[in-house]
Structures are given as structure tokens and as C-alpha cells.
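Recap from last week: sequence in, structure out.
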Amino acid sequence: MHNSPFTAGSNSVAEHLDSSVLETLQAVMEAEYPALLDTFLVDSEERLRLLHAACRSGQAESLRQAAHSFKGSCSNMGAALLAELCREMEETARRDQLDETPALIERIEREFAIVRILYRAERQRWGGPG
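Predicted C-alpha cells:
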């Protein structure tokens, strides 16, 4: 557990999340903020499934669209590194370099695993008892 993103201090978290985006979302969403976090995580899992399906089927345009959609969602939620990986996937699919996509999906999945931990912690901080 010593390699948890929380043990290395705020720099480690800042690498994955843009706190200014989260602060804006908190201010705008107020009581709905925890639900927004939940929705993002559920949506992201579905978007990952779409990336996998497009990769397996070898459909570059489907892959590009799925990556583009996921990128926008990550960007809106302050998941900066995840958004950047999705941008890379979008470009790779646009160039039809599908041999590179399995490794890139693996990187996206690893980053999402970290982001999911961070957002769940954020959710607990804001969620309260109900």
C-alpha cells in the first residue's frame, strides 16, 4: 500500500487531477457534486468498454469517436492525465495506427484505476452520511 497516490503528498494527486476544475465543479454543483462524481465513474467504465470493443473490432473511426468522447468527459472533470491519454488514443485512431491501441488502452485503464481511487476519496469527503 506504500505506493498509493495519497502517500506521496499533493504533488502526486495534482499529477492526475486538476484541483481548480474540481473546485469550480464543487462551487457550481454544490450538493449535487457527489452525484456528479458517481456519474463520471459509471460513465467512464462504459466509455472504457466502448474503447475495448472498438479496438477488438479494428474500427478506427469508432475508436476515435470513443476516445474523443472520453477525452471531453475527463477534461470536464479535471482528470487531466486521463484526458491526455484519450487525446493520444484519438490521434492514434485518426492515423489508423491500430497496432498501438492495445498498449494505449492499458495505459488509459491504469490511469483510470488511479483516478477512480481519487474520485472515490473525494466522494467520501463530500458525500456525508447520505
